[in-house]
Amino acid sequence: MNLPLLSHGRNSAEDVPKHCRISAERVPNQCRSSEEEHCHLGASGSVMLQLCGTLVTALAAGWAVSQGHLLFTMALPVLALRQPDRVRAMAAALAYFLVAGADILHVGPYLATTESASLPLWLFWLSAAFLQTLVWCWCWDKEVRFLRASLALTLSALPPFGLIAWAHPFHAAGVLFPALGLTGLLCTLAVLEAATRKPEILLLAAALAFFNHRDVEPRSIPWSGLNTQFGDAFAGDDPLGVMNAVARATRENPAVVQVWPESIVPHWNEATEAFWSDIISDAKRRGKTIVFGSTIGIPDPLRLRLRNVAIIQGREDRLPVDQRTPIPGATWHPTTGTGVPLMVFASPIRELAAERAAFLICYEQLIAWSYLMLLVDRPTVLVGMANTHWVTATSIPAVQTACLQSWARLFNIPLVQAVNR
Fold first, then answer.
1. More reliable by pLDDT, 267 or 41
2. Which of 269, 275, 355, 260 is nearest to 312 (CA)?
3. CA 333 → CA 84, 307, 338, 343, 413, distances in Å?
4. What are the pLDDT digits (tens) for 224-246?
5. pTM of this structure
6. Least buried of 84, 215, 226, 383, by fewest C-beta within 10 Å?
7. Which residues pair with 356 in a beta bridge?
8. Distance (Å, rounded) from C-alpha 154 to C-alpha 168?
9. What's the rounded Cα separation, in Å, for the pair 348 and 337?
């Protein structure tokens, strides 16, 4: 009996109904789509995780800098320039600057009572952080090309960006390379440039700072910085108390140059000079020089304009030293021309008691531009004067002191600091 042969080859597929064949063909495609979707979701999750990690690191670095730990400023070039795209570079830099400068918001309530601010401090805080971020965002390059970090560091330190460049990595130069001056600054630039390619170099820099954290011993000078607690010295509530303190120090303090804080004498004019004449004459007889902060009116019938200065009287009389960079929008009002004028290239140097003294007043102590000019001026003494009674609850005074100490270490010169709280 002959049985028909069953074909399991070509004819078997033809025997399958058409709609079944189409469904079978769709199964692999559906699997591939599902796998691609899972891969896409996994990649998106990885990107978000990386972004969150970057932002947390940037926020932590900014907070550490805001507490006066200047070595953490070196994280900025790595955080901003090693991102895979420009948006994430911008997010990292903005987070860093917002946190590093957040304490400036505490100045707002005080300025509101004095009606001296031309714009809200929160707007200055946001604007300054955003403008600094733009520099790093513009210098970002996907391939992290050579000198990109150096370009960003230089542009952000020089005017106009340098006028708002708090938390700048150059502040770490004195921590890393004390007593090396310009060489130390260039070495810091080289370390930061290299770190954008090999971030582990930052660990070596931290180790260098740890082992190199020795106290640089500059030569001793007969100068004295006197800290006070006169409160709101701008209000001039206790002029006799200030005079008595200065007179007592003139008699009892052996220092030949005595530096007092910013604006302990609210206004300096002919009447004020006559009021202080006895103390100044006594200091001259004793061979001592008094330096104190005050303001001098600028004649202008239409606008209120002032110079925030250091007055130098006694054995050596010198021209007042102007604050070159007042707080934008708070004491310097570029849109109205009122307040304290900007004097970016004015000299902070005065020859005093056989020294070349560089004076930095208040906000100037926070920005790198103030110190970069000293590379040309070559001072032998660094003098910091500030009035911080309205920000005593913040870390701004600690950051000011840290910046002054770092640059004094870099230049290997004595630091004289006077602060009113």
1. 267
2. 260
3. 39, 13, 6, 13, 34
4. 999 998 887 666 667 888 999 99
5. 0.87
6. 215
7. 351
8. 10
9. 22
